[in-house]
# Entry
Amino acid sequence: MKVQVFALMLLFAAGLISCAKPEASFSDASASSLSESNADGGIIGGVPVAGADPIAGTVVAVYDNEQKALCTGSIISSNLVVTAGHCFNQDPTKLVLIFGTQLPNATGSGPKPILRRVVDGRVNPRYLQVNAILEKNPKTDPDSINDWGDISILKFEGGLPAGYSAAQILTTATALVNGAPVTLAGYGEIDGKKQTPSTDLRKVDVTIANARFSATEVQMDQRQGRGACHGDSGGPAYILNGGKRFLFGVTSRGSLDKNNDCSQFSVYTNIVAQMNWLKAQAQALNGAKKVGTQPAPKSPTVVKK
# Structure
Protein backbone atom coordinates (compact mmCIF):
# COMPACT_ATOMS: atom_id res chain seq x y z
CA MET A 1 0.00 0.00 0.00
CA LYS A 2 1.03 3.53 -0.66
CA VAL A 3 0.73 6.00 2.18
CA GLN A 4 -0.99 8.62 0.04
CA VAL A 5 -2.81 6.64 -2.66
CA PHE A 6 -6.51 5.89 -1.99
CA ALA A 7 -6.08 6.97 1.68
CA LEU A 8 -4.94 3.43 2.48
CA MET A 9 -2.90 4.42 5.54
CA LEU A 10 -5.24 2.18 7.49
CA LEU A 11 -3.79 -0.95 5.93
CA PHE A 12 -0.27 -0.75 7.33
CA ALA A 13 -1.27 -3.56 9.68
CA ALA A 14 -2.04 -5.76 6.70
CA GLY A 15 1.67 -6.45 6.38
CA LEU A 16 2.66 -6.45 2.72
CA ILE A 17 1.41 -3.05 1.76
CA SER A 18 3.36 -0.36 3.63
CA CYS A 19 5.79 2.19 2.28
CA ALA A 20 8.19 4.87 3.44
CA LYS A 21 8.64 8.47 2.33
CA PRO A 22 10.85 8.66 -0.77
CA GLU A 23 14.20 10.42 -0.45
CA ALA A 24 14.32 11.99 -3.90
CA SER A 25 12.05 13.05 -6.74
CA PHE A 26 11.41 11.28 -10.03
CA SER A 27 14.35 12.45 -12.14
CA ASP A 28 17.30 11.23 -14.17
CA ALA A 29 19.70 11.55 -11.25
CA SER A 30 17.39 9.89 -8.75
CA ALA A 31 17.81 6.35 -10.07
CA SER A 32 20.94 5.95 -7.95
CA SER A 33 18.91 6.45 -4.78
CA LEU A 34 16.68 3.39 -5.28
CA SER A 35 18.36 1.17 -2.71
CA GLU A 36 18.43 3.99 -0.17
CA SER A 37 14.64 4.13 -0.18
CA ASN A 38 13.94 0.39 -0.32
CA ALA A 39 13.36 -0.13 3.39
CA ASP A 40 9.88 -1.53 2.83
CA GLY A 41 10.06 -4.27 0.28
CA GLY A 42 10.85 -7.75 -0.94
CA ILE A 43 11.16 -11.51 -0.74
CA ILE A 44 12.61 -12.95 2.48
CA GLY A 45 14.60 -16.17 2.66
CA GLY A 46 14.94 -16.33 -1.11
CA VAL A 47 17.58 -16.03 -3.81
CA PRO A 48 18.12 -13.59 -6.71
CA VAL A 49 16.40 -14.52 -9.96
CA ALA A 50 19.02 -15.21 -12.65
CA GLY A 51 18.57 -13.56 -16.01
CA ALA A 52 18.13 -16.95 -17.69
CA ASP A 53 15.38 -17.98 -15.26
CA PRO A 54 11.96 -18.01 -17.00
CA ILE A 55 10.58 -16.00 -14.07
CA ALA A 56 12.86 -13.10 -15.02
CA GLY A 57 11.11 -12.74 -18.35
CA THR A 58 7.59 -12.48 -16.94
CA VAL A 59 7.96 -10.14 -13.93
CA VAL A 60 8.15 -6.32 -13.85
CA ALA A 61 8.34 -3.59 -11.24
CA VAL A 62 5.35 -1.21 -11.21
CA TYR A 63 6.39 2.32 -10.27
CA ASP A 64 3.92 5.03 -9.22
CA ASN A 65 5.28 8.27 -10.65
CA GLU A 66 2.85 10.33 -8.54
CA GLN A 67 3.26 8.64 -5.16
CA LYS A 68 6.89 7.49 -5.59
CA ALA A 69 6.20 3.88 -4.58
CA LEU A 70 6.93 0.48 -6.08
CA CYS A 71 5.03 -2.77 -6.59
CA THR A 72 5.62 -5.93 -8.60
CA GLY A 73 3.55 -7.20 -11.53
CA SER A 74 3.27 -10.13 -13.94
CA ILE A 75 3.09 -9.94 -17.73
CA ILE A 76 -0.06 -11.61 -19.06
CA SER A 77 0.04 -10.45 -22.71
CA SER A 78 2.13 -8.32 -25.07
CA ASN A 79 0.68 -5.13 -23.55
CA LEU A 80 -0.95 -6.12 -20.25
CA VAL A 81 0.33 -6.65 -16.69
CA VAL A 82 -1.56 -7.91 -13.65
CA THR A 83 -0.79 -6.49 -10.20
CA ALA A 84 -2.54 -5.82 -6.89
CA GLY A 85 -5.59 -3.58 -6.59
CA HIS A 86 -3.84 -1.49 -3.95
CA CYS A 87 -1.00 -0.84 -6.44
CA PHE A 88 -3.43 0.88 -8.82
CA ASN A 89 -3.40 4.65 -9.19
CA GLN A 90 -6.73 6.35 -9.91
CA ASP A 91 -4.90 7.83 -12.88
CA PRO A 92 -3.10 4.76 -14.30
CA THR A 93 -1.04 6.95 -16.66
CA LYS A 94 0.99 7.91 -13.57
CA LEU A 95 2.38 4.36 -13.49
CA VAL A 96 5.54 3.15 -15.21
CA LEU A 97 6.79 -0.42 -15.69
CA ILE A 98 10.44 -1.24 -15.01
CA PHE A 99 11.90 -4.30 -16.75
CA GLY A 100 14.99 -5.98 -15.30
CA THR A 101 16.18 -8.32 -12.56
CA GLN A 102 18.07 -5.48 -10.88
CA LEU A 103 16.90 -1.99 -10.03
CA PRO A 104 19.47 0.85 -10.09
CA ASN A 105 21.73 0.79 -7.01
CA ALA A 106 22.97 3.50 -4.69
CA THR A 107 26.12 4.14 -6.75
CA GLY A 108 24.22 4.56 -9.98
CA SER A 109 26.05 1.62 -11.49
CA GLY A 110 24.47 -1.53 -12.88
CA PRO A 111 22.17 -1.98 -15.87
CA LYS A 112 19.99 0.88 -17.02
CA PRO A 113 16.33 -0.07 -16.53
CA ILE A 114 14.01 -0.52 -19.49
CA LEU A 115 10.82 1.50 -18.96
CA ARG A 116 7.33 1.32 -20.42
CA ARG A 117 4.54 3.81 -19.74
CA VAL A 118 1.14 2.60 -18.52
CA VAL A 119 -1.64 4.12 -20.63
CA ASP A 120 -4.76 2.62 -19.06
CA GLY A 121 -5.94 0.15 -16.44
CA ARG A 122 -8.78 -1.31 -14.38
CA VAL A 123 -9.09 -2.16 -10.69
CA ASN A 124 -11.44 -4.80 -9.30
CA PRO A 125 -14.55 -3.09 -7.83
CA ARG A 126 -14.53 -5.44 -4.84
CA TYR A 127 -11.20 -3.98 -3.77
CA LEU A 128 -12.70 -0.49 -3.82
CA GLN A 129 -15.50 -1.76 -1.56
CA VAL A 130 -13.02 -3.24 0.93
CA ASN A 131 -10.98 -0.06 0.88
CA ALA A 132 -14.09 1.99 1.64
CA ILE A 133 -14.95 -0.26 4.60
CA LEU A 134 -11.48 0.15 6.09
CA GLU A 135 -11.51 3.90 5.51
CA LYS A 136 -14.86 4.25 7.25
CA ASN A 137 -13.90 1.95 10.14
CA PRO A 138 -10.16 2.42 10.83
CA LYS A 139 -10.18 -0.02 13.75
CA THR A 140 -11.42 -2.90 11.59
CA ASP A 141 -9.14 -5.92 11.77
CA PRO A 142 -8.00 -6.56 8.16
CA ASP A 143 -7.99 -10.29 8.94
CA SER A 144 -11.75 -10.09 9.52
CA ILE A 145 -12.38 -9.38 5.81
CA ASN A 146 -11.90 -11.99 3.09
CA ASP A 147 -12.25 -11.84 -0.69
CA TRP A 148 -10.55 -8.47 -1.00
CA GLY A 149 -10.54 -8.52 -4.80
CA ASP A 150 -7.02 -7.12 -4.53
CA ILE A 151 -6.19 -7.23 -8.24
CA SER A 152 -5.82 -4.80 -11.12
CA ILE A 153 -4.79 -4.93 -14.76
CA LEU A 154 -2.57 -2.39 -16.55
CA LYS A 155 -2.15 -1.65 -20.24
CA PHE A 156 1.23 -0.33 -21.38
CA GLU A 157 2.64 1.06 -24.62
CA GLY A 158 5.87 0.27 -26.44
CA GLY A 159 5.62 -3.52 -26.56
CA LEU A 160 7.63 -6.10 -24.65
CA PRO A 161 11.42 -5.79 -24.53
CA ALA A 162 13.46 -8.63 -25.99
CA GLY A 163 13.50 -11.67 -23.72
CA TYR A 164 10.12 -10.95 -22.10
CA SER A 165 6.86 -12.84 -22.63
CA ALA A 166 3.52 -13.50 -20.99
CA ALA A 167 3.37 -15.89 -18.04
CA GLN A 168 1.28 -18.98 -18.56
CA ILE A 169 -1.79 -18.68 -16.32
CA LEU A 170 -3.27 -21.61 -14.40
CA THR A 171 -6.77 -22.34 -15.69
CA THR A 172 -8.05 -24.71 -13.02
CA ALA A 173 -7.72 -24.54 -9.24
CA THR A 174 -7.48 -28.31 -8.77
CA ALA A 175 -3.68 -28.08 -8.45
CA LEU A 176 -4.04 -25.66 -5.53
CA VAL A 177 -4.13 -27.85 -2.42
CA ASN A 178 -2.91 -27.43 1.14
CA GLY A 179 0.78 -28.24 1.46
CA ALA A 180 1.53 -27.82 -2.25
CA PRO A 181 4.91 -26.15 -2.98
CA VAL A 182 4.73 -22.79 -4.75
CA THR A 183 7.21 -20.11 -5.82
CA LEU A 184 6.82 -16.41 -4.99
CA ALA A 185 8.77 -13.53 -6.55
CA GLY A 186 9.30 -9.81 -5.99
CA TYR A 187 11.78 -6.98 -5.44
CA GLY A 188 13.28 -5.74 -2.17
CA GLU A 189 13.76 -6.61 1.46
CA ILE A 190 15.47 -9.88 2.40
CA ASP A 191 14.73 -9.75 6.15
CA GLY A 192 11.32 -8.78 7.48
CA LYS A 193 12.60 -8.12 11.03
CA LYS A 194 15.73 -6.14 10.18
CA GLN A 195 14.19 -4.57 7.08
CA THR A 196 17.30 -5.38 5.07
CA PRO A 197 16.86 -3.95 1.57
CA SER A 198 17.71 -5.52 -1.78
CA THR A 199 17.36 -4.22 -5.32
CA ASP A 200 17.31 -7.68 -6.90
CA LEU A 201 14.29 -9.50 -8.20
CA ARG A 202 14.16 -12.50 -5.85
CA LYS A 203 12.23 -15.75 -5.58
CA VAL A 204 11.44 -18.15 -2.78
CA ASP A 205 9.65 -21.46 -2.32
CA VAL A 206 6.89 -21.81 0.29
CA THR A 207 3.86 -24.05 0.74
CA ILE A 208 0.15 -23.35 0.57
CA ALA A 209 -1.32 -23.10 4.07
CA ASN A 210 -4.95 -22.82 2.99
CA ALA A 211 -5.90 -23.21 -0.66
CA ARG A 212 -9.47 -22.17 0.18
CA PHE A 213 -8.67 -19.25 2.48
CA SER A 214 -11.62 -17.56 0.78
CA ALA A 215 -13.49 -18.01 -2.47
CA THR A 216 -10.95 -15.85 -4.29
CA GLU A 217 -7.81 -16.07 -2.13
CA VAL A 218 -5.02 -18.48 -1.18
CA GLN A 219 -3.02 -18.32 2.06
CA MET A 220 0.73 -19.09 2.12
CA ASP A 221 2.73 -20.42 5.08
CA GLN A 222 5.69 -18.16 5.91
CA ARG A 223 6.52 -19.54 9.36
CA GLN A 224 9.75 -21.11 8.13
CA GLY A 225 11.37 -17.71 7.55
CA ARG A 226 10.57 -17.61 3.85
CA GLY A 227 7.96 -15.69 1.89
CA ALA A 228 6.67 -12.37 0.63
CA CYS A 229 7.13 -9.13 2.52
CA HIS A 230 6.74 -5.35 2.23
CA GLY A 231 7.13 -4.34 -1.38
CA ASP A 232 6.11 -7.62 -3.00
CA SER A 233 2.58 -6.32 -3.47
CA GLY A 234 1.16 -7.41 -6.81
CA GLY A 235 3.92 -9.97 -7.36
CA PRO A 236 3.41 -13.49 -8.69
CA ALA A 237 2.83 -16.89 -7.14
CA TYR A 238 3.61 -19.89 -9.37
CA ILE A 239 2.85 -23.58 -9.13
CA LEU A 240 4.23 -26.53 -11.09
CA ASN A 241 1.53 -28.58 -12.80
CA GLY A 242 2.37 -31.32 -15.27
CA GLY A 243 6.00 -30.25 -15.19
CA LYS A 244 5.20 -26.66 -16.24
CA ARG A 245 5.20 -23.49 -14.16
CA PHE A 246 1.88 -21.60 -14.04
CA LEU A 247 1.01 -18.18 -12.62
CA PHE A 248 -1.93 -18.38 -10.21
CA GLY A 249 -1.56 -15.69 -7.55
CA VAL A 250 -1.11 -11.94 -6.95
CA THR A 251 0.46 -10.80 -3.66
CA SER A 252 -2.15 -9.02 -1.56
CA ARG A 253 -1.29 -8.75 2.15
CA GLY A 254 0.07 -10.32 5.32
CA SER A 255 -2.15 -12.38 7.59
CA LEU A 256 -2.05 -12.93 11.38
CA ASP A 257 1.20 -10.95 11.30
CA LYS A 258 0.88 -8.75 14.39
CA ASN A 259 4.58 -7.83 14.39
CA ASN A 260 4.41 -6.80 10.75
CA ASP A 261 7.61 -8.75 10.05
CA CYS A 262 6.25 -11.15 7.41
CA SER A 263 6.87 -14.15 9.67
CA GLN A 264 3.43 -15.76 9.69
CA PHE A 265 1.21 -15.97 6.61
CA SER A 266 0.56 -14.09 3.38
CA VAL A 267 -2.60 -13.87 1.30
CA TYR A 268 -2.65 -14.03 -2.50
CA THR A 269 -5.51 -13.14 -4.83
CA ASN A 270 -6.39 -16.30 -6.79
CA ILE A 271 -6.17 -15.44 -10.49
CA VAL A 272 -8.12 -18.58 -11.41
CA ALA A 273 -11.10 -17.25 -9.42
CA GLN A 274 -10.73 -13.82 -11.07
CA MET A 275 -10.27 -15.11 -14.64
CA ASN A 276 -13.66 -13.97 -15.95
CA TRP A 277 -13.05 -10.46 -14.60
CA LEU A 278 -9.51 -10.41 -16.02
CA LYS A 279 -10.64 -11.52 -19.49
CA ALA A 280 -13.41 -8.93 -19.58
CA GLN A 281 -11.06 -6.12 -18.56
CA ALA A 282 -8.38 -7.22 -21.01
CA GLN A 283 -10.91 -7.10 -23.82
CA ALA A 284 -12.19 -3.69 -22.70
CA LEU A 285 -8.68 -2.24 -22.44
CA ASN A 286 -7.56 -3.42 -25.84
CA GLY A 287 -10.76 -2.16 -27.39
CA ALA A 288 -10.57 1.22 -25.72
CA LYS A 289 -9.34 4.38 -27.41
CA LYS A 290 -5.58 4.71 -27.02
CA VAL A 291 -4.35 7.38 -24.63
CA GLY A 292 -2.22 10.06 -26.29
CA THR A 293 1.53 9.45 -26.26
CA GLN A 294 3.33 11.10 -23.34
CA PRO A 295 7.00 12.17 -23.12
CA ALA A 296 9.32 9.24 -22.39
CA PRO A 297 9.45 8.33 -18.67
CA LYS A 298 12.58 8.92 -16.62
CA SER A 299 14.23 6.56 -14.12
CA PRO A 300 12.56 6.59 -10.68
CA THR A 301 13.47 6.81 -7.03
CA VAL A 302 11.04 4.49 -5.26
CA VAL A 303 9.79 3.09 -2.01
CA LYS A 304 8.16 -0.30 -1.58
CA LYS A 305 4.52 -1.08 -0.98
